[in-house]
From TrEMBL:
Subcellular location: Cell membrane
Residues of the ABC transporter domain: 9-255
Name the record gives this protein: ABC transporter, ATP-binding protein
Pfam families: AAA_15 (PF13175), AAA_23 (PF13476)
GO cellular component labels: plasma membrane
GO biological process, one term: double-strand break repair
Species of origin: Mariniradius saccharolyticus AK6
Topological type in the membrane: Peripheral membrane protein
């Protein structure tokens, strides 16, 4: 099962952002033939720009400290988002947008939620007594324990450990997920753990993923449909990407590269 069938990026003023990005001058329709879509390309090619505009268009919640509407870093993307036309196969009602940098905002959000819950307990203790107090405090403890079970204590783990934990805790069946450079925090081993998580959710749980990445590991996700952003936006295989070939050649013979660098 996947949800979004295609998007159509309409033309705009090529002298201004984002239509001044070469990829968007000719982009047109992008058709999704797989539950996993991967955006690849050089820095500045436009991958995140399209992902952000799409997240706004899909009205997805952000996993950070601020919602998309109040996120100042997304202020310039509304017009671009408005110019995108969506075509659904089935409408998805669950999903989120997650960027590598949103992780710390999420930890902050969890911390303030925890403070609020502690405040609720203090408040109940002042206002209630007997069974009423017991029930109210029990309900708050229930919420605290549910958060603890889902994410553990994110203040006591590394960035990469916590990042993966958040994704494991938030990804659910039958959702559409837009993820920007998840590999930024992850070791190769944890990229493989994420690979396995995404593969399982796409194959067995009816999820659709659109991921911008520089990770050759994630580019190899089974049946992933890769779009290369350069002068145009076009389909490629992972073997054709520079990420894959440069890394492969480098690892095969680092000395050969070092002679020229
Ligand atoms: N809000 C903005 N206003 C003007 N230009 C922007 C804005 N955001 C990004 N750009 C420019 O648009 C281009 C594409 O940026 P984008 O972040 O989409 O690239 P990317 O392909 O995701 O790159 P990377 O792999 O480095 O994340 C860049 O040249 C960038 O400087």
């Amino acid at each position: 099962m996947y949800y979004l069938e295609s998007i159509l990026v309409n033309k705009g003023d090529e002298s201004r952002f984002p239509y001044n990005i070469p990829a968007f001058r000719t982009m047109g329709r992008m058709v999704f033939d797989s539950p996993i879509t991967v955006f690849v390309g050089e820095n500045g090619a436009g991958k995140s720009t399209l992902l952000k505009a799409l997240a706004i268009k899909l009205n997805l919640p952000a996993i950070g400290s601020t919602d998309l509407e109040s996120d100042e870093t997304l202020a310039g993307f509304q017009t671009f988002s408005d110019s995108i036309k969506l075509s659904w196969r089935n409408r998805a009602y669950r999903g989120f947008f997650f960027r590598a940098e949103d992780y710390f905002g999420f930890v902050k959000r969890l911390r303030s939620l925890d403070q609020e819950l502690k405040g609720d307990i203090v408040d109940f203790e002042k206002r209630l007594s007997g069974t009423g107090l017991k029930l109210a405090v029990g309900a708050v403890h229930g919420q605290k324990e549910a958060l603890q079970r889902r994410y553990g204590d994110l203040t006591q783990v590394s960035h990469g450990e916590g990042f993966l934990k958040v994704l494991q805790g938030r990804l659910q069946s039958e959702g559409i997920y837009l993820i920007d450079e998840p590999e930024a925090a992850l070791s190769p081993q944890r990229q493989l753990a994420l690979f396995s998580l995404i593969k399982n959710l796409a194959e067995n749980e009816g999820c659709q993923f659109i991921i911008a990445t520089h990770s050759p590991i994630l580019m190899c996700l089974p049946k992933a449909q890769l779009f290369q952003f350069d002068d145009t936006v076009h389909r490629v295989s992972y073997e054709e990407t520079e990420h894959f070939t440069i890394l492969k050649n480098f690892l095969n013979n680092p000395e050969a590269f070092l002679r020229y660098l």
